[in-house]
Automatic annotation (TrEMBL):
<dbReference type="InterPro" id="IPR013325">
    <property type="entry name" value="RNA_pol_sigma_r2"/>
</dbReference>
<protein>
    <submittedName>
        <fullName>Sigma-70 family RNA polymerase sigma factor</fullName>
    </submittedName>
</protein>
<keyword id="KW-0238">DNA-binding</keyword>
<dbReference type="Pfam" id="PF04545">
    <property type="entry name" value="Sigma70_r4"/>
</dbReference>
<dbReference type="GO" id="GO:0006352">
    <property type="term" value="P:DNA-templated transcription initiation"/>
</dbReference>
<dbReference type="InterPro" id="IPR014284">
    <property type="entry name" value="RNA_pol_sigma-70_dom"/>
</dbReference>
<dbReference type="InterPro" id="IPR007630">
    <property type="entry name" value="RNA_pol_sigma70_r4"/>
</dbReference>
<dbReference type="InterPro" id="IPR000943">
    <property type="entry name" value="RNA_pol_sigma70"/>
</dbReference>
<dbReference type="InterPro" id="IPR007627">
    <property type="entry name" value="RNA_pol_sigma70_r2"/>
</dbReference>
<dbReference type="InterPro" id="IPR007624">
    <property type="entry name" value="RNA_pol_sigma70_r3"/>
</dbReference>
<feature type="domain" description="RNA polymerase sigma-70 region 4">
    <location>
        <begin position="221"/>
        <end position="268"/>
    </location>
</feature>
<keyword id="KW-0805">Transcription regulation</keyword>
<dbReference type="Pfam" id="PF04542">
    <property type="entry name" value="Sigma70_r2"/>
</dbReference>
<dbReference type="InterPro" id="IPR013324">
    <property type="entry name" value="RNA_pol_sigma_r3/r4-like"/>
</dbReference>
<keyword id="KW-0804">Transcription</keyword>
<dbReference type="GO" id="GO:0016987">
    <property type="term" value="F:sigma factor activity"/>
</dbReference>
<dbReference type="GO" id="GO:0003677">
    <property type="term" value="F:DNA binding"/>
</dbReference>
Length: 279
């Protein structure tokens, strides 16, 4: 109010007018919704379905508002709104006009439930336990109101107090937010662009596997006798067939097969942590 200005008795605050008009509009929509639901209950199709469709159109802003609370969770806004509309349609078709509650008192929990089910069943790239999924949905629904009331992003303790749960459960659920979406490998690998993310990922190197295999096998092979080591060398280093090994050692091919099988069984046993009884 300007300095020196005295408000007359007939002046009304613009904020008060806006609030009253918003409340009047909500009541008008609520009344129209109730009348349409009463009519839908009393008439057959196609008028019945037309009334239900009008109820959905009248209350669509409510569905969009609820869906907006779940944004920034890795799911496309259009998808969230479609799920919210589905919940609204279910509410419009499932509401009983003889119920003691208003339509929105039934529709809002129905829409929220549909969104939570979507996050639980469809939106996870990596699926954590169901209790964690449901807690994450509760946090997502409560967080906007807490931010508005507290003036800052709520801590785990503040969120837990609002939800009536333990801060550790809130922290666990908050840690899985990244599970809703993953980065595309075609995304830029650096802020300035130029390369894609996949170009920054190291290629698999077969040499590491070979080094690991050698270091794993060396102690086990060291425990073999000279003949067994010779058989392994001829078979796996020189590429000899069993017949050629037999000729080299002066034994039959069947004996080579039996010896080779025994050697490999012993190596497997040692690598598994114990020597087999028949070694």
């Amino acid at each position: 109010m300007p300095p020196g200005h005295v408000r007359r008795h007939d002046e009304v605050s613009p904020v008060t007018i806006a609030a009253v008009r918003a409340e009047d509009r909500k009541q008008t929509i609520a009344d129209a919704t109730h009348e349409l639901l009463l009519e839908a209950d009393a008439v057959p199709d196609p008028r019945h379905q037309a009334c239900i469709d009008e109820v959905v159109l009248l209350n669509a802003p409510v569905a969009r508002s609820i869906a907006s609370r779940y944004r920034s969770k890795g799911v496309d806004s259009d998808d969230l709104e479609q799920v919210a509309y589905l919940g609204l349609v279910k509410a419009a078709n499932g509401y009983r006009v003889d119920a003691s509650t208003a339509f929105l008192s039934y529709a809002v929990p129905t829409i929220r439930g549909e969104l939570k089910r979507y996050f639980r069943d469809c939106a996870w790239t990596i699926r954590p336990p169901r209790r964690v999924q449901e807690m994450q949905g509760n946090i997502a629904a409560a967080e906007p109101e807490l931010i508005q009331r507290l003036g800052h992003v709520p801590t785990d303790e503040e969120t837990a107090a609002a939800l009536g749960t333990d801060p550790a459960e809130v922290a666990e659920a908050a840690s899985v937010r990244g599970c809703f979406s993953t980065l595309s490998l075609d995304a830029p690998g650096a802020p300035e662009g130029g390369t894609s993310l996949i170009e920054t990922v190291a290629n698999a190197e077969d040499g590491y596997d070979l080094v690991e295999d050698v270091h794993t096998l060396t102690p086990a092979v060291a425990n073999l006798g000279d003949r067994d080591k010779r058989i392994l060398q001829l078979r796996f280093c020189n590429g000899f067939t069993q017949e050629e090994i037999g000729q080299e050692l002066g034994v039959s091919q069947m004996q080579v097969s039996r010896l080779l099988r025994g050697i490999l069984d012993r190596l497997r046993g040692e690598l598994a942590g114990g020597v087999p009884k028949n070694a």
